[in-house]
Amino acid sequence: MTQNLKSSEISVGQTLPERPIPVTTSLVTCAALATRDFEKVHHDKGFAQPDGMPDVYMNILASQGLTETGGNGQ
Known about the structure:
InterPro entries: HotDog_dom_sf (IPR029069)
Shape: elongated
Structural class: mainly alpha
Low-confidence stretches: none
Largest sheet: none
Strand content: under 5%
């Protein structure tokens, strides 16, 4: 279970709780399509494999979205 913290509850140097997000093929594919990224390497495993990838790979918008939070401390 994750815990939501307000900015007033966090201090510099404090270790924050982990917030695991399972990165699945479905998440990668849905995120690509949701951001209107139709590059086949993001949603077609058969297209990504000749490039040496074992599966589809995440686009920049999806990876950035997973690293960001609301930023407003609420």
